[in-house]
Design goal:
single chain, 256 residues, alpha/beta, seven-stranded mixed β-sheet, 26% strand, globular, binds zinc ion
């Protein structure tokens, strides 16, 4: 049995401060599953020559501006330009639809009240929530970030026998290790090289993570500041904007 490839396309790889050469973090997996909607998301999907309607599932880790404020642009594109008809699923923290409505009422009033030619299925996720969309199974974890913006989530995903995970924004905590359990690729935030922050990880945290998780799990670092360097960390890469990371072979058997 040939495994289906796992392909990560980074729309952006920067932290909230959008350092030179790095738009805000967000990425697409297998051209169908979008992780976070940074303000630059529409422009970067267009730079990839992607049909934005190909996005089947959008995962919003939390509602900080750099992860969430691209959604109005996507909705605008789907409503007026790409004429999306494919149903969309949004997996996100509770109340995200209501908070989005408030944003839309200010920045693109009336758009959400239009009759859209596609359905949006909102899946509110909490610690331990599980679901499946067109063969993609997801599990949500509560991360340690900024509860004032609502629940902050990480996601563990499985499709076609391949498993990967995304930390969203978080400090190093038990959820990061739980997410990493048995996955081939862990997309992890690393918001700075050395700053100690109670809400983010730095390279010292990533080195600890590298030592404690399965050595076969590839760590893909994103949400980066300008000074982050991979520094010889084994089986790890730094994401870069419009960078493509393709994993053809099983790095490990998620069930074994
Ligand atoms: Zn954040």
């Amino acid at each position: 049995v040939t495994a289906s490839p796992l392909t990560f396309n980074f729309l952006g790889s920067g932290n909230a401060f959008c350092p030179p050469g790095r738009w805000w973090n967000g990425f697409l997996v297998n051209d169908r599953w979008l992780f976070d909607a940074p303000p630059s998301v529409l422009g970067q999907l267009n730079n990839l020559r992607m049909d934005t309607s190909d996005v089947e599932v959008l995962f919003i880790s939390h509602r900080h501006a750099d992860h969430f404020l691209g959604l109005p642009f996507l909705l605008m594109d789907w409503a007026y330009r790409s004429a999306r008809t494919r149903d969309l699923t949004i997996v996100c923290p509770p109340d995200t639809k209501e908070r989005l409505q408030e944003v839309m009422d200010i920045v693109l009033p009336g758009l959400l009240k239009r009759e859209m030619p596609f359905k949006t299925h909102w899946k509110y996720a909490r610690q331990g929530s599980e679901g499946e969309v067109n063969g993609l199974r997801y599990q949500a974890f509560e991360m340690q970030h900024v509860p004032a913006v609502g629940l902050c989530l990480g996601f563990r995903l499985e499709a076609g026998g391949r498993a990967f995970a995304y930390t969203g924004d978080t400090a190093l905590c038990d959820s990061v290790f739980a997410l990493a359990e048995g996955v081939e690729v862990l997309v992890s935030e690393c918001a700075s090289q050395a700053d100690e922050m109670a809400i983010h990880m730095n390279m010292a945290n990533i080195r600890e993570l590298r030592e404690r998780i399965d050595e076969r799990t590839h760590i893909l670092l994103t949400h980066l500041s300008e000074d982050v360097v991979a520094d010889g960390l084994p089986n790890a890469s730094l994401a870069y904007d419009l960078g493509v990371f393709r994993f053809d072979e099983h790095l490990l058997n998620p069930r074994g």
